[in-house]
Amino acid sequence: MIKNCEIGVVGLGVMGRNFLLNIAGHGFSAAGYNRTPEKLALLKEEGKGLPVTGTGDPKEFVALLRRPRAVIILVPAGAAADSVIESLIPFLEKGDLLIDAGNSHYKDTERRAAALAAQGLFFMGAGISGGEEGARKGPSIMIGGDKNAYERVRPIFEAAAAKAGGEPCAALLGSGSSGHFVKMVHNGIEYAFMQLIAETYDFMRRGLGLDNEELSAVYSGWNKGELNSYLIEITARIFSRADEKTGKKLVDAIRDAAGQKGTGMWTTQAALELRTPVPTIDAAVAMRDLSFYETERAAAAGLFGTPAGTSDADSGEKNLARLRNALHAAMLLTYAQGMALLSAASKKRGYGLDLETVARIWRGGCIIRSAMLEDLRSAYLREPALPVLFLDPGIAKKIKDCHEDLRAIVSSAALAGLPVPAFMSALGYFDAWRSGRLPANLIQAQRDYFGAHTYERTDAKGTFHTEWEK
Ligand code: NBP
């Protein structure tokens, strides 16, 4: 059995086992700990020839690690993460470092870091994106916490991470729970992109009558241009995949109810707390929830009729070009929402986030990687404190080129009765930002009318109240 391992990994499920093998593949000796034996057997099998070892006993696991120890935890968020930490504490020593790399809530990370610091232990939160393949071949890793503690594991994380333009997609993004906050927002953006792409699918299938082969070809074509991204790439592949059972396309056999593990909802909740709107992410979470009301949807379809066909008389090609541009605009507007939320969180929680670094490490390995992130990176290089992403001249030009098509698609879908709430929210977000004057003056008047909440005037300083019924 290998001893004096450079790193330990707890939880040898999909992510933990693959990440451990990835690390060991880069020459770092690694010990794994899993409470049930099946995954230890898999580690032994898959780790042949690599500097790996495994155990089902926490005491033995800790004893296998070089001091001061560094342990990566990859178990489900919540009670499992707490239970793993509790099981290790009796065997750890002052100065040891625990890194929770699961999708934990950032507030849990703050609580755990404070509790462990009181015992002389370092605790960091890291978000890993890229799924099974990313974990094995190179994910994007968003890390938060103590700078000196990170230096101890930096070579391991940078070696195991994806590379984009020769740079590792791993970085210490800021202090405290910033790694988990950034990962949460990454997932929120992921929810929104998936919903937007699903809406383009619905528009093309129900609206324009494209079949699965045609859909696959459209997404493949889009992936060669400005929309080049992981999610568009896999979408093209999904539409060409045959079902082994029926020989027909698999996508049509899948129930239309979209699951979730909560990170999208957390993003929405955090945005509400920070008073930073992320309407396209909100819409995406809401649509996953709505998708489960199948009985009620069927009843409403019977009552009101189900939408079909687009009212747009334009040719298919023109519609497809419009749809591509609309998606481009909506994706940029979604990145803008996510970045605004990160900026607000950084100010409120003192994370010290550098948004250029965030854009840089999202370029490879993660689910929301896309060619657009080069544009985001350039924008934050030009102006690190950019308050709203599309105030950058480069991003503004792209949105100017596309937003009329976004408007055309939203109106076409609305007239046809096709549901495109994520597209609608992106457009509404954009139009609200570019409104020099919003109707919030009326809301202030109403608040003052029924609740004497007072209002400010545009032509005088101070607060005012009117006896509206006099
Ligand atoms: P899996 O379900 O594949 O594996 C979970 C692991 O946690 C198993 O090894 C399991 O051990 C262990 N575990 C559990 Br469950 N409860 C435990 C407990 N109370 N004490 C000790 N060990 C426990 O999950 P995964 O997909 O590898 O996800 C791990 C983390 O990574 C999660 O936080 C997830 O949100 C995050 N993540 C997942 C993905 C993805 O695409 N899958 C991507 C990014 C992040 P056992 O074998 O004994 O049950």
Architecture overview:
The structure is a single chain. With 470 residues, the protein is α/β, with parallel strands linked by helices. Helices cover 55% and strands 10% of the residues. The strands form three sheets. Strands 3-2-1-4-5-6-7-10 form an eight-stranded mixed β-sheet, with helices on both faces. Strands 8-9 form a two-stranded antiparallel sheet. α1 crosses α7. The longest helix is centred in the C-terminal third of the chain and has 34 residues. The termini are far apart. It binds nicotinamide 8-bromo-adenine dinucleotide phosphate (NBP).
Summarize this structure as a short list of keywords or feature phrases.
single chain, 470 residues, alpha/beta, Rossmann fold, N-(1-d-carboxylethyl)-l-norvaline Dehydrogenase, domain 2, Single alpha-helices involved in coiled-coils or other helix-helix interfaces, 8-stranded mixed β-sheet, binds nicotinamide 8-bromo-adenine dinucleotide phosphate
Brief digest:
With 470 residues, this protein is α/β, with parallel strands linked by helices. Helices cover 55% and strands 10% of the residues.
Distance between the termini: 87 Å
Bound molecules: nicotinamide 8-bromo-adenine dinucleotide phosphate
What gross morphology would you assign? globular
- Quickly count the helices: 19
What percentage of amino acids are in beta strands? 5-15%
List the domain count as a whole number.
3
Radius of gyration over all CA atoms, rounded: 25 Å
Structural class determined from secondary elements: alpha/beta
Task: List unreliable stretches of 5+ residues.
Answer: none
CATH topology of the largest domain: N-(1-d-carboxylethyl)-l-norvaline Dehydrogenase, domain 2
- The CATH architecture designation of the largest domain is Orthogonal Bundle
The neighbouring-strand order within the major sheet is 3-2-1-4-5-6-7-10
